[in-house]
Structures are given as structure tokens and as C-alpha cells.
Amino acid sequence: MPRAKKKKSLAKGLLLPGFYISTIEEFSAKSGAYEDGGGVYSSKVGLPEYDGMEHYVSVKPFKVSAPERLILGASYVGLVSDVHKNFAQVTIFSKDQLGRPVPFSALLHVSRGGVRRARAATELVKPGDAVVVKLITNWVPLQVSMEGPELGVVRASCSKCGAPLTWDHDGVLKCHACGHREIRKVSVDYGRKNLHSALIN
């Protein structure tokens, strides 16, 4: 490893193993850090803690409180945040031990949209739609599906005027404010308040 420069600024923020922290003249390595070639480096993922009195630096492990684990194959309420040609980004919501909604980012591929003839994700969902989806992977990036009559869009707004859309038939949603019609992959439970209460409360 190359010798550290004495004038290099001290490390701040999240560190990864091998990241430079300081020179040994400035601080000595303590827990979570090591010395090499005149420099001090992180040996773990964490945040640096500097002891200005004793001139020691340690790396405090970076811990994130884990919310309730998502269950593979379970259905979740979500919000569509972005839509591309082949996939849509969906924020799904689980609940922690106190019953508070916890967001997770997931991907909905067009092939998992539940409509065989769909050529693009824009034919299935639009940004801002509330959806019910099923979790089909438990690794990052999470992936979800809308295959099944109970899965799909449960609340949507008109892309022209913003008014609520009403389910007409065959996945066609109608805006009674301006008369505009839009296509979605609609759940049979479209419009039922209890399904998307987690997004409102």
C-alpha cells in the first residue's frame, strides 16, 4: 500500500475496509483500524471516531436497525416511483414492530406485469400509482410481480388533470373530470380503501 501523505485530510463519513483515515503522526490506530506505510486505514465498515486527547482513531461499526423482514411470496402495497420501458421502480411498504410503514425499493419487470401483450411497463403502471404486488426475490435488487387478478393497480390519478381514475372495464380507467382514458394492469380490488390505507395513514 502506498505511503500516506502527511497533509491528506482526515476521513469523514462512512468508511469501507482499506479506506484511508489519517497519518500515524496525527492519530494511532485503535479498534477497527490498522496502520500501514505511515497511514491509518479502516479494517471494517463503519464511521471514524477521533480521540483528540489521546490521538487515537477507531472505527465504530455501522449498524442499521433492521425492520420486519420481507416475506418471499407475500403481497405488499406499494407506490410506483418511476417507469421505464422494461421495468418500473416500486416502493413497497412493510411494517416494523411498532406498526409503522417501512419502505423498500423494488423492481417490476414488464414480463412480470401480468399482461402478456404488454410491450412496455408504461402499459402497466404510471408514476404515482398505488399497487399491490407480490415479492418474488429476497435479494437486492428486490423484484416484484403483478401476475394474478388480485395484484395490480388499486389507485390511480389522471395523467392530464390529476383527478382520481375510475375503473371502467378491461383495464381501462376513466377520468370523470376531463373524460381522459388510460390503460393499467388493474387489480380486481381497485378502489378499495382498505388496501391502500397504509399509504395514507
SSE order, one letter for each helix or strand: EEEEEEEEEEEEEEEH
The CATH topology annotation of the largest domain reads as OB fold (Dihydrolipoamide Acetyltransferase, E2P)
Structural class of the secondary structure composition?
mainly beta
Strand order of the largest sheet: 7-8-9-11-10
What's the helix count? 1
How would you name the CATH homologous superfamily of the largest domain? Nucleic acid-binding proteins
Approximate shape: elongated
Q: Beta fraction of the residues?
A: 35-45%
Poorly predicted regions: 1-7
Layout of SSEs?
Elements: E1 20-23, E2 28-29, E3 33-36, E4 39-42, E5 46-51, E6 56-61, E7 75-83, E8 87-95, E9 101-109, E10 130-135, E11 142-145, E12 152-155, E13 165-169, E14 172-175, E15 181-183, H1 197-200
Parallel strand pairs: 2-6, 9-11
Antiparallel strand pairs: 1-4, 3-4, 5-6, 7-8, 7-10, 8-9, 10-11, 10-12, 13-14, 14-15
